Amino acid sequence: xxxxxxxxxxxxxxxxxxxxxxxxxxxxxxxxxxxxxxxxxxxxxxxxxxxxxxxxxxxxxxxxxxxxxxxxxxxxxxxxxxxxxxxxxxxxxxxxxxxxxxxxxxxxxxxxxxxxxxxxxxxxxxxxxxxxxxxxxxxxxxxxxxxxxxxxxxxxxxxxxxxxxxxxxxxxxxxxxxxxxxxxxxxxxxxxxxxxxxxxxxxxxxxxxxxxxxxxxxxxxxxxxxxxxxxxxxxxxxxxxxxxxxxxxxxxxxxxxxxxxxxxxxxxxxxxxxxxxxxxxxxxxxxxxxxxxxxxxxxxxxxxxxxxxxxxxxxxxxxxxxxxxxxxxxxxxxxxxxxxxxxxxxxxxxxxxxxxxxxxxxxxxxxxxxxxx
Length: 373
Known about the structure:
By secondary structure, this protein is an alpha+beta fold. It has helices at residues 23-31, 91-102, 141-149, 178-184, 187-198, 211-225, 232-240, 292-306, 328-335, 354-365; strands at residues 3-8, 35-44, 57-68, 74-79, 110-120, 157-159, 168-173, 202-206, 251-259, 262-272, 275-283, 311-313, 340-351. It has 2 domains: 3-167 and 344-365, Gcn5-related N-acetyltransferase (GNAT) (Aminopeptidase, 3-Layer(aba) Sandwich); 169-341, Aminopeptidase. 29% of the residues lie in helices and 28% in strands. Strand 9 (251-259) and strand 10 form a beta hairpin. Helix 5 packs across helix 8. The relative contact order is 0.18.
């Protein structure tokens, strides 16, 4: 494979619907102490896709985030990237060559390049679901790695023990009319949206002056679900960053749902390209019967449509209706809005330092929940 890579200015990262591959996201992460790097690449289509034209090329780019680890090591992380998706039989070769080239741009203490791949999973066909629609799980890790590394030189791609960003999401086609969107929902979801209106739930767009309200709801939600709690500065950086002088800015809306003088739910909506993404959500344990989260999601969809979006990313559910899965509640809630499930390949590591990588694996096994990246 002939792969040409050139480092580029962060501000020139191309416009994309993937929030985590924008200049906006690089600025958010720089505020949190990570070092962003951006790269252009060019490759012949015949090395990426089956049955491609012999002389055609693909040109694209990707954002990489470099972060220090407590042990003195560091990790390179590519969130939901690269965006272009090779044919499954070419993916390992592509990632191997990409990794071997960009390792020269990384410090010596970098132990791995972690790709949080938004490419469609190899293991989401019907054979991996039972008759009830419940996902039977991924094949053995060794089998996954065999398939990804087949045809590579170094056989050096490892499946991470856990994913960072959600590996299963739901995409809504919001180019339809509002009536069609409502008709695509489950009847209970439509009912709950209307019930929230009868209960007097109102959704407001909020600014930085309401960030403490968001944070109170967020901490309550995180504790209720046993999740890692980010500090408030994390969300301030997301809300205040715009990157308007770049090729890939984003627009952020903080939405608050209120009834009877109480704030009951909140979410961060991010507009990038023609996609609206439900990035973070929180809700109170009080007045659950007001169905404020349904009003909130419906308002977020309508706002995304106002900005010309044709797609809405619900961002994170269990891979199927498995009651034992920790994200089943989100699956039950979000599938009610319609849309299609999409299964990502998740996190894959290209190892640069075996000893350091073993240390990373041990530390991650002891970590609590997801961390935001």
